[in-house]
Amino acid sequence: MHERILVVEDLAAQAELARIFLAGLGFEVRIAATGAAALEAVSEWQPDGLLLDIELPDVNGLDLLKQIQANGSDAVVVVVTASASMETAKAAIRAGAEDFVVKPYNKDRLSVTLSNALQRRALAHGQRELETRLTHAQTRLQDAEAKLSPKGFVGFIGASEPMRAVYDIIQGVARSKASVFITGESGTGKELAAEALHKSSPRAARQFIALNCGAIPRDLLESEIFGHMKGAFTGATSDRVGAAKLADGGTLFLDEIGEMPLEMQVKLLRFVQTGIFSPVGSSKPVQVDVRFVCATNRDPMLEVQAGRFPEDLYYRLYVVPVELPPLRERGQDVLLIARDFLARFAKEERRGFRGFSSTSEAMLMAYPWPGNVRQLQNVVRNIVVLHDGEVVSPDMIPAPVNRPGAAPPIAAPPIAAQQIRAERRRAEDAPTQSLAEMVASAPEYIEPETVYVPPPEPVYQMPATPHPITYAAPFAAPIPPITYAAAPEMEIMPLATMERRLILAALSRTDNDIPRAAALLEINPSTVYRKVSAWRKEGLMPA
Amino acid sequence: MSDDHRFAAHLAEDLSPEDFRHVLGLLRDDLVKLTGHLEAAAAAGDEAVFRKVAHGIAGSASTAGPYELEQAARSAMTRPSDGPPLIAMAADIRHMVDAVLVRIEDTLREDGADA
Predict the structure, then answer these.
(1) Annotation: CATH topology of A4-124
(2) Using one digit for the tens of pLDDT, what is the confidence trace for A202-259?
(3) How far is A82 from chain B (nearest CA, A)?
(4) What is the pLDDT of residues A476-499, one digit of tens each?
(5) CB–CB of B60 and A17 under 8 A?
(6) Chain B: residue whose CA lies nearest to A55
(7) Under CATH, what is the fold of the domain B2-114?
(8) I want to staple A353 with a disulfide (CB 3.0 to 4.6 A). Which of A15, A207, A316, A346 is the partner?
(9) H-helix or E-strand spanning residue A102
């Protein structure tokens, strides 16, 4: 392809002479007689070079040169002047010209000047291209290193095959605006995956807003997502911006989306389709640019088939699925994560731990971790809080991780677990059903996370003898921790009473933070809200 | 006139006879137009336009090689504010342009006859 030269010259003889010379040198040539025509030609034709007369009828040539360059053209410019003064030459170069020629010029002079200028431009382009390639190569190398590194990828730790596949999907989809649906068992790091996606995306400079749909009372969910106006409902004492607006330009992560009430799912569908919503109490629509990332620990397709999740919404959100593997399928990641937690918690708690003994590591590797990374985190935290030393020895590892062969069952197929989980959720939705009834009505197999008893942290401590429970200060020491070994000696009481005590203990432990208490109990926060509300009505706890 | 002939000959070396005649014809038209603009600027006392047009004449003259005309145009380009009157300078340049136009016509006629 011939290089393009735009001759900017108002005198016909000069322009024609240049055109003949340049055409003879193999260039494709166009002529612009005014500055305005030149600007238009540069924009539309995108020449490689300009032969620019310094005196034009409508504009000074040097001013035109500055304007062309300000418009982003990378065309090389050779200024033509009838004045051979150094001032003119300096002014031309200062204005951004590559070179200049003085009239009269012949074909050879023009050829040398223009060819040199174009070669310098080509070299600069080549250098820029090399730099770009180098940058891309470095980025790819960093990505590859990140995936292979034990430190993992954007907050994740682990280099197992299943996790590398996850990293690949996250990286692949990060640049697009496509909705992402993250599935995985509880504790596998769904929010971490959503955040990694956000941080890897062009939206990283804007907000990542995470909302746990299951942790928010149904009545408040719409307000949490869309915001509300002052006076929209009792207690709305001022305007409040919702998550949708906060996430404008960024990412909105809706965790436990399956917990969202159906009527709210319909409103969400409208928002996902149009990007438009109205805050509660306002009829004024608000348009935002939000990327949706959702997560659930249910099987979304089963939820659709069961009529608990709108099909339209499913297809809007389930564009790119990311399935996080359970920890038991992540091989050596268990140790990488455990070591990272150990280092982090040892620093926080000012302990001297530097690693695990080989036997301890073997115990960690043998355990199936039904509570996934969250459970591993709790176990390591427990070790660090209760012990000190340089090496974590087997006697420091709490039950049930320290009991070979006593691990909770985890062999049930995932779908069965999903179904049981769904059954349990449905049971939770029945406001009068107690935990005892739920357990009684559940299939024989109970999902591991519901029977797993974490290490002996105070939250699980129970009173030695029954005594009145108060919400503010429920229990007194000394209280033996519940362990599998101690369990047979526990006081036997109605399951509903036990349930209430356990929930109140969790609330006390978390300063009445219901989502955190629910996380400790590994149940849905809405269950806690519902229970607390019912107990208050029954006078079983202060209003 | 010897300078005129030498440069016109040099220009002819870079161009085909057809292009040579074409460029000379355009040059003639440019000089006629520019000289008219120069006289108008002088009559209006517009020094800025006068210098700008003189720049165009100098460039055109240099292309074809009429050295005296080029020098006169350059003097007009750089004329000090207390220099010769604009109208007088324009008249001198007109005189030289007329001579160049005759020379161009002769060259075109001779070149056409040769061709």
Answers:
(1) Rossmann fold (3.40.50)
(2) 898 899 999 888 888 877 888 999 999 988 888 788 888 999 999 999 999 999 888 8
(3) 5
(4) 333 333 333 434 456 777 788 888
(5) no
(6) B52
(7) Four Helix Bundle (Hemerythrin (Met), subunit A) (1.20.120)
(8) A346
(9) strand A99-102
